[in-house]
Automatic annotation (TrEMBL):
InterPro entries: DNA_glycosylase, MeCP2/MBD4. One of its GO terms (biological process) is DNA repair. It comes from the Eukaryota. GO terms for cellular component: nucleus. GO terms for molecular function: DNA binding; hydrolase activity. The keyword DNA-binding applies. This is Methyl-CpG-binding domain protein 4. Keywords: DNA damage, DNA repair, DNA-binding, Hydrolase, Nucleus, Phosphoprotein.
């Protein structure tokens, strides 16, 4: 006990353990790096007002939201801009400018073969933004529940520019039946911002919120060539419906089935069709 008390006393004398509250104490090696503060301000007028923590660089008014679960350091959002790092260079894109961009013209490299499963990706291959939006709706959500809301969303907000301009509050109202509507709405806007800021992306994973399912869907239906389904391409998705589509393409390619036939073991496409 005496040794413990002596240790505490010695710590109290140290300049690193002053009696002030812990939130005000910082090592002299980090005095000029960052300060943390809580605020009720929104990240942007396009996002829903929620209580967030920010990192504020001393001597600068720039505020950068703390990383969320699926954020990457290379895709950060300030109050008025998107910061994207490519080739070790960080470029700032003004949100207002992105929202008023001219429509991005995309010319499909091929028309994917229509399958008996009627995957939504087969319908949206002509627009990578819409296809990737569809993957966010299908992520951990049954198709029967997601599709009616997804088609309504794409009808009302048919471009990333319209999605950004309308703001998260109205989008959240539309997404309410799916649950987690505020999170979903902000993710759609942040994805749209990075899509406009980085239209020549080499993989959807360079964009906000895009994971393996989005990557596999994009490669199959929006890639450079219609060959991602072939054996040896390296694409072996874990998603059940994408696996079924690939297996069906391979069987048809070998001549075992006609292009409008399913295999005996294939299940119905009710939950993943439009």
């Amino acid at each position: 006990m005496k040794q413990r008390r002596k240790k505490i006393k010695s710590e109290e004398k140290s300049p690193y353990f002053k009696k002030e509250s812990i939130s005000n104490v910082a090592s002299p090696y980090f005095q000029n790096v960052v300060k943390f503060e809580d605020t009720n301000n929104t990240v942007s007028k396009y996002f829903i007002s929620t209580k967030k923590s920010f990192i504020k660089s001393e001597g600068s008014e720039r505020k950068i939201p703390l990383k969320e679960e699926d954020w990457e350091e290379k895709k950060l959002f300030t109050e008025n801009s998107v910061l994207i790092t490519k080739n070790r260079k960080t470029i700032s894109y003004d949100i207002e400018t992105l929202a008023n961009m001219k429509p991005i013209v995309y010319v499909p490299k091929f028309v994917p073969m229509s399958s008996p499963y009627n995957l939504v990706q087969e319908t949206l291959y002509y627009d990578p933004w819409k296809l990737l939006v569809a993957t966010t709706f299908l992520n951990r959500t049954k198709g029967t529940q997601a599709f009616p809301i997804m088609w309504k969303f794409l009808e009302e907000y048919s471009t990333p520019q319209k999605t950004i301009k309308v703001g998260a509050t109205k989008i959240a109202d539309l997404l309410h039946p799916l649950g987690l509507q505020n999170i979903r709405a902000e993710r759609l806007i942040k994805f749209s911002l990075t899509y406009l800021a980085n239209p020549d992306f080499s993989t959807p994973k360079e964009l906000f919120g895009m994971g393996q399912y989005a990557e596999d869907s994009w490669r199959l239906f929006c890639g450079e060539e219609d060959d991602a389904w072939m054996e040896g391409s390296g694409l072996e998705p874990t998603d059940k419906m994408l696996k079924m589509y690939i297996n069906w393409r391979r069987v048809v390619h070998k001549g075992y089935l006609k292009d409008n036939e399913m295999s005996i073991d294939d299940t119905k496409r009710e939950e993943h069709s439009a």
